[in-house]
Amino acid sequence: MPSTAGSKEPTLVHYRMPYATVRLEPGPELERAYDELALLVALQGIVNRDAPQLYVLGLSGPGVPDLDGFWWQRMAEMGWEVAHQEPHRAESLPELLNIYGDRPRGLVAWDPQVPATQNVAATLAGAMDLLPVPFRPVDTGGVRTLWNELREHGWTVATWLIHQDGSSLFTGRGQIPGTDQPSTGSAKNDAYRWAIAHYLDTGRSSADHLAYYIDADWLRNPAASSFWNNTLVNHDYYVSHRAFFFDLDPWEDESPVDDPDQVPGTDSRTLAAILASATRRTDAKRMIHVGGFPPWAFKYTDHRGAGGRHAGVPTEWHYAQRLSEYNAFMEADALGFSAIANASFTQHFPLRDHYPQAPAPDRAELVRRGLVGQDGQVVPGRYLAFYVGDFDAPSWLYQAGPSLWGDPERGSVPLSWAFNPNLSLRAGPAMAWTRSVATPNDSFVAGDSGAGYLNPGSLEEPRPSGLPSGLSVWVEHCARFYRQWDLDVTGFVIDGYAPGLTQEGLEAYATFSRGGLVGQKVPPHALVAGMPVLTMATDLGGSPRDAAEAIARLYAPVAGPQFAVARAILQKPSWYRAVTDLASGETSDGGKAVTVLDLRTLLALVAVHERAHRIRKASDARCAVVSVTADGVVCEGCAPVPAPDSGWHMDRVESEPAVVFGPHPRHATGTCYLYLTVRAEAPALASARKLRLKVRYWDAPGDLSMVCEFNSALQTADHRGAYTPTHAVRTAGERVWKQVVWELLEADFRGAQNGGADLRLAASPGLALNLME
After folding, report:
1. Residues 324, 454: contact at Cβ < 8 Å?
2. Section 197-214 average pLDDT
3. DSSP 199-260
4. Which residues pair with residue 517 across a beta bridge?
5. Cα gap 1→93, rounded to integer Å
6. For 100-125, what is each residue's pLDDT tens digit?
C-alpha cells in the first residue's frame, strides 16, 4: 500500500468491493472490512470531487443482484460518454492506493474507544483530503490490521484524534483539547465540539452539507441489520463536498445507548450547536442539506437493543423538527434501504435544465374526460389518487427503484410517483432514467414536503432557534428544483410535531406548487391563492383486499364529489393494479365505486369544485345546515369528514331518510362518530365564538346517548379544546322526532380533530338523526 502513486492514473477505474459476504460478528475480520470500506469511500470522495473517475460495485437491491452495474448500464443507455469508456478494473485496495496514492495528504488516526471519532475523521477526510484509519496497532486472530499495513508502507499521520501512545484524546473530563471550552462530560460530544470549533466554525468544513450517519459504534451490534447499513458507502458524496459528519441522539430527555453515562440531552445540545454553526455560516440565507437518518435499529429508539425511550416515528418527527428550526432539510437515507454508492461519481452526470411531463388537465380536458359537467360542476363520485412513496431518500430510489419500475403492471393504472426533486443531487441518473421510460400513466409529484424533507411550519416565526422566518429561503430553494423537474404538486407535507402551515405558509407554497398540496395539518379541501389543498387521508398496506377495504372507509354516503389521497410505501405497480381493480368495482353493500386518478388530475378537480362552491355560496353565509335526503347527506356551509374512526351509514327511520350511527369495524359496540368541518366559505360561522347547534334525532330505542364535541378556545378542555363537550342527551324511547339545541361557547374552528374536522357528534350505535342546523 504505497503512500505515493506508482503509475499514471487511468481515466476511469472500476472496483468491485469484496464486503458483501463478510460475517456480521464483532471481531478483527469485521473490523478490517469496516476500516477498509471507510478508507475506500473517503478516497473515492477525494478522487471524484472534480471529475468522475472511481466507480465501485458490490451493492445489491430487491431483485437486482448487481445494483451498481444496473445503474452503470442505465447511464450508458442514456448516452453519458463516461459510461461508454472502457474502465480499468482494479483488483484490490492496494492497487487503488497505488493509482491514487498522491491524492490524499496523509492519514487521520481515529480512536476505536471513542467511536464518534470515526465521524470526525470522515469530516477531516473531506476538509483536509485525509484518509481515515483507526489506531489498531495489534494484529489479532490472524488478521492484519489496516493501520499496521499502511504504516509499514510509509503512510504518515497528518492529524491524530487519539494520543500516539493509544490513550484517548477525548475523555469527557477537564477541558476539550485544543479549545477553551469545558468538557461536556462526554468523550463522544467532546470530539464533536472539537470538530465544530476547528472545522465548522472556521469554514474548513462546508456549512451547506451535513451528514448524519452512524459512527463506528455500528461494530458493537452489526447484526441488527445488513453490512451495507453501516452507511459508509454514503460517505463519498459528503467527503467530496467537505461535509461535517455527526451521529447524535436528537432527544433531550435521554442518554443514548452508545454513551449511557452522559447527562441526558448532551447529544441533543451538540446537535443544536452543529445546526446553529451551519446557519451562522450561511447567514440563514441558504437551505442546509443534511444526508442520513436516525439509525433507529441501532440507537435512539425503543427498538430492541437500541436503548431509547421513544418509538421510531416520533424520533423521526422530532429530528425533522429540529432540522427545520435551522433551515435544514434531510435526505432520509433510512433503514433498511439506507445505502447508496457512487454519488460522488454520479453527481457529475449531465442533467438537463428541464424535464417536462404532460401538463395537468385543464377544465376542457376534465370535461372531455367526463369528470366535469357542462355546468362546470365536478361530476358526483368518489375520486382517489395514490401517493406512491416514500422517496425522500436517494438511497431508496437507488435500491428499490429498479424492481418497482421493472414491474410489468407499471403503466396499467395512474400512479403519482412522489420523488423529492432534490434526489437529483445524489441520484441524478435514477431521476433522469425514470423520466425517460415513464408511461402516460406515470406522473410525478414532489414527495415529502418538497425539495427536501422538513416540517415547513417550523420555518415560520416564532421559531425556537430564534431565527427569522425561513419561508422565502425555502421557496427559492424549492422553485429551482420544481422548475427543473416540471413539478407543480407537493404530494405530502409532513408536519409531524411542528405547527401546521399558516395562511402565509400555504400562500408561499402556492408560488411554486400551484397545482396543489396534500398535507397533514391542512383543511380537508380548500383553495388557497389558487392552489388546491387536500388532507392526506390514510396510509395503505397489507394485501390488495385490505387496502381496498381501507379505501372504501374513506368515503361517506354524502351527495356530490368526494376526494381522497392515500399513501403507500414501496408497493409495486402490480399491487396498485390489484387494489384499483377491487376499489373500482361495485362494493358488496351496493356503494359507489371509486375512480382512480393521478394526483395532479385529482387536485385539478378539487380546484374546480372549490371555485364552483365559492360561486354558489354567499360569502357572508351565517348558517350551516346538514340535511338528509334520499340521495345522501346535503351540507350547506360545512361538510362531513370521513375520519378513520367515523361510524355511521344511511338508512330510513319511519319513512324518512336518516343518518344512523354504527356499526364501525373498530367500534362495533362503543361510541360512533360523525365528523364535520366548517367550510371556509362561511366566514361568519367560522369566526363566531358563540354558536347554537340544533339537531333533530329519533327518540328510540331508549337509553341511547349523544353529545357534540367541538373545537374551542378553551385550552383546559380535552386535547387543548379540540374536543370540548356539550351536555349529553339520552333517548327515552318515545318513538318521535325530537330536537336538542346546544350552545357552542368559545368556538374556534381550527380543524384540530381527526381528519381536520371542527366538530363531531358522538352517539350510541343505533341513534338516528336527519337534520342539523
Report:
1. yes
2. 98
3. IITTTSS-SSEEEE---GGGGGSGGGS-GGGG-GGGHHHHHHTTPEEE-----SS---TTST
4. 490, 533
5. 8
6. 999 999 999 999 999 999 999 999 99
